[in-house]
Amino acid sequence: MAISLYASSVPVFQQMLNSLDAILSKAEAHATERRIEPDALLQARLYPDMFPFIRQVQIAADFARGTSARLAGAEVPTYDGDEKTFADLHALIKKSLDFINGFTAAQIDGQESRTIVLRPGTPKERQLTGQAYLLSYSLPQFFFHVTTAYALLRHNGVEVGKRDYMGQY
Predict the structure, then answer these.
(1) Does 3 reside within a domain?
(2) 1 within domain boundaries
């Protein structure tokens, strides 16, 4: 039996965004309990040329929204990306979950052959089928940023583990 495009996308994004939201709460509590300035975690990075924690969360949320919308043939929402606090990131994740929760299996299933154009009109333009876009591009990108956000917090002493990363499944 084949697995549906919807089952491979929206529920996965929901699970991981919910776990990321819970991890954010643990990071907030960690900062409060240890009297750590929140920006020490929000701006954390492993190396100077990488995106900070806050941007990792933003990109993960962007991928969840953008992928779901593109697969469904819907308008991709854009947000300002001006999140600066844990509360802002919680709100971003909630908006992202609210958006992707609006999609049904009927809107996404059967779109495996839909043409998805990345970076349209630029020298980096690339066309992928819906299935290739999800499995070879979007999911790896999404998991990279969720994992990096998790690792940045763990590296900075936040007590999170694999169960926190996995969330409810």
Answers:
(1) no
(2) no
